[in-house]
What does this fold into?
Amino acid sequence: MSIIYFLIGCSVLLALVFLAAFFWAQRSGQNDDLYTPSVRILLEEDDNELQK
Amino acid sequence: MKQGAIIEKTCCYHCGDECTTTDYVIDDKQFCCHGCKSVYQVLSANQLCSYYKYNDHPGATRNRTDKRFDYLSEPGIISELLDYSDDHVSIVTFYIPHIHCSSCLWLLEQLNKINPAVHYCRVDFLKKQLSIRFDHRKLSLQQLVELLFDIGYEPLISLHDIIKDQNNANKDNLVQKIAVAGFCFGNVMLLSFPEYFGLSVYEQNFKHFFGWLNVLFSLPVVFYSGRGYFQSAWQNLRNKVLNIDFPLALGIAVLFLRTLFEVASHTGAGFADTLCGLVFFLLVGKFVQKKTYHHLSFERDYRSFFPVAVSTITPNGEKPVKLSELSVGHRIIIRNNEIVPADAILLKGNALVDFSFVTGETLPVGKVLGEIIYAGGRQTGEALEMEVVKPVSQSYLTQLWNNEAFSRQQDDRMRTFNQKVSKYFTIVLLIIAFGSLSYWLPSDIRRGFAAFTAVLIVACPCALALSTPFTMSAALSIFDKNLFYLKNTAVVEQMAGINTLVFDKTGTITASDDTEIKQELALTDRQRQLVYSACINSAHPLSMMVCRELKGTKRLETSTYLEIPGKGILATIDGDELRIGNSKLVFGQPGEAGDVTKVHLMINERYLGYFALEHRYRPGLDVLPGLGKDYDTYLLSGDKDYERNRLKSFFSVEDKMLFNSSPQDKLDFIDKLQTGGGCVMMFGDGLNDSGALKQSNLGVAVTDNVNNFTPGSDAILDGRSFDKLPSFLRFSKDTVNIIHISFLISLTYNLIGLSYAVTGNLSPLIAAILMPLSTATIISFTSIATHFMAKKRRLI
It folds into this structure.
């Protein structure tokens, strides 16, 4: 059953990586504006065909 | 000008307003004014016409076409506006009120197609902000703002930028704290399960391993996530206040120390899971309570309404001066639509000043040379030259902000239920804890301490601390759905305690732009055309209203036209002579003060009658007599008492209507009501109500467009929801009742827990079940009950 020590160590380490990823996302402002990208994605990148 | 063309009903291609002329046509597209047409021209020249593809009529109407951004060349002002600047790039963030659709977003992020000096632009849709990185060597800030103005997106520039301050203040890492607490809570739960299910003898090593891991996970929860509770409790203790944070901090500390002790002494598993869960739920409650409206500001004062700078006349020509540097003796120039920033004497020009923000009067007032014009008035017409006689902060209107009502601490206006209760709760809790300690201590020291700590753990008012935030945030979102925006959750409780309602008149119970023209005259088609053709030439608000009333009429050629400021129009059209204006112009003598404003009409020396201007009351105003039964209702107007008779039916007693009140009078009146035991809710809309809004227990700014300027207040009410006012008030009382009931529920759970705790036999399992169970009960009860009451009050 000593494998438990290893497994728990792995799981905690993995969880810590995710926690760190969340901190990074939060710090770099990825969660600051959660609405605008949903509008932006619907706009055409290249608008030549849309021209009148 | 096309003569005699029949105007069909068409909408402006740019802004969607109705076109009243056919003067502005380009590419087969109709525009209502030159401003809208010029925006279209800029966009089509840059091949940005997809702007009109995403939405119909995405633009804002643009009557004003003159640019006034000279002050943006002052280095002092530039440096205050820029977020960042180095040798070749600058970053600036603008607040643009008009951002409202995907077209706006698309166009504003294409700025570099118009000017390559713009490197990068990003829109934050909800905050209505545009952040731009640009090369300031190729494009100055002034040019940038002019570019935005040209495409129809004029930024609102203010040095006293509340929105920016608000966003900066929000960074207290609450989300990170929740993340850490949640992370630890999950892991600790996992590691605690083996203990609860029972470990066999040969697995005892794991028990210690899990125990120490739990302690390790508790460390960040206590010292990072939970730190705020210790700080707050300590601060309150020093101010000799017992608030809810004290028993919470005590609970967290006891939980942690007992867990540490039990794990270290191998006497038990500790309460690490309860500890992490407690902190996690508490922080979630805090997060829920913190609802922010990014696009609304509740803290605005006159500085956000006044311009950033004003043009002054110096020996070397015109020079923009920052408002804070404006002093007595400065000569200033005020152009059309600009606001007079300080009390000043009129030296040159025809002043026709709109004082609607100061006095509530909707019609502009004429002023003669040498007269003092009070700050806050907006000039309509030609440019004025004036000499400042009082500094900005000491002016008639702005000195209101020197009143102590504005410097007073906000929070202690009304104590919330939570604050009142938590004091007694803490005292009772400590008595029980020490009681059980002293009961067991003589016989069994271990048991005594076990009971003492168990009481503090079990009675930790987690559910109590959560009941208010969850109820209030549910209530807030219901108000929000009904276009009533509250500053924070405490406002709901304040609203429930209100017994007096005070209403401002203009803009609050009358719709601000919505005036009704009553025609007290019978006109033939020919006469309608004559009046219309004369009035269309004038920019005076009354002429514009008459035109709107007669719109769709044929326009005739005007041969002579003369507008006399403060009087009216003299015109000759098609051989007919017209006199349109006040009684001084038409009859040659001032008329008596009637109860409405009248525009008289005389054609060829024959008096035909008048157009009467009437304020239209908000549709929901008939709820007022009903409210009068439960509340004291007052009317407080800066206007003259023209409409006393019409308003009589809404405010039962004559002496409950006050007219001719100055901004200071309004503040004093509220103060007087409060000393008489009134808990006052004030409804106002302009700067003139600011003092009263601030002094009142609950200030509500009523507005027709929430993005417009609103004075500092506790809540912003959209005019369309005015009729729901009685429901709002009743619903606020319901939510307070819900809080009381959930308090009882959480007390029941505490009593159950205490019955175990005082004996000293509290097992970690019971604590671990009881805490989340009570939390879940409270959260579901409050959300369901709030929803139910909202339905009952017809708010959802």
